[in-house]
Amino acid sequence: MAGFLNLLCTVFFLSLISQGNCHCHQVTDIKIFQSQTGLLVQNKPQWKVTILNDCICTQVNIKLACDGFQTVEGIDSSILAVRDDGCQINHEQPVYGFRTFNFTYSWGTQYPFMPVYSEIACS
């Protein structure tokens, strides 16, 4: 009986110290998918961008490489803010674990967005 209690206490202790332990890899856990919506804006195809946080932990301050990005469709800067150091998404708000964030743009070709920075917020 004492051995069982020791085992139970050990399992309980290990579960406590492992909570909040996040095995995210920041930008490598950010996946970007794009597809055409079928709409045309100023005769340019509209693209839907889906950004997936493919980790259980929340990620904040996500930036994408976007040098040379162009669109004929206006994008609210709280959704996608084009800056000198990249494109900030979601107005620096979190993208929770296994959740997506979407926006659209219109241009003749798909732009190759790549994640370049994020911060992990695990509790």
Features:
single chain, 123 residues, mainly beta, Immunoglobulin-like, four-stranded antiparallel beta sheet, three-stranded antiparallel beta sheet, 1 helix, 43% strand, TPD1, signal
Summed up:
By secondary structure, the chain is mostly beta strands. The protein has a single domain, classed as Immunoglobulin-like (Sandwich). The protein has one helix at residues 2-18; strands at 30-41, 44-53, 58-65, 80-83, 86-89, 100-106, 114-121.
Any overview of this molecule?
It holds the Pfam family TPD1_C. InterPro entries: TPD1. Residues 1-22 form the signal peptide. Keywords: Signal. The chain has one helix and seven strands. A hairpin with a 2-residue loop joins strand 1 (30-41) and strand 2 (44-53). The chain is mainly beta. The radius of gyration is 20 Å and the shape is elongated. The protein has one domain: Immunoglobulin-like (Sandwich), CATH 2.60.40. Helix content is 14%, strand content 43%. The longest helix has 17 residues, at 2-18. The model is unreliable at 7-19 (pLDDT under 50). The strands form two sheets. The chain has a four-stranded antiparallel sheet, with no helix packed on it. Strands 1-2-6 form a three-stranded antiparallel sheet, with no helix packed on it.
